[in-house]
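thought: fold this chain, then report.
action: predict
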Amino acid sequence: MSYPEKRRSNAWFLLPILIGGIIAFFILRHDDPRKAKNCLYLGLAFMVIGIIFNIFIAASIPGLDSGFNVNI
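observation:
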């Protein structure tokens, strides 16, 4: 099934930043496939950056222990 391509606003690039690239992809995939793929890539890039950032934050916390001094 062929869908007519509609040009969408560049404001759609805020969706992967705020919510997620997969959601933006599924919303835009029929209307503007090129922008949908770019939103997906942007969402994946932010996910990788977030994971790396979290690893650095977790590694810099001194005394982070697997037990957390909890007795069960």
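thought: worth noting. The helical segments are 14-18, 21-28, 33-60.
final: tokens above.
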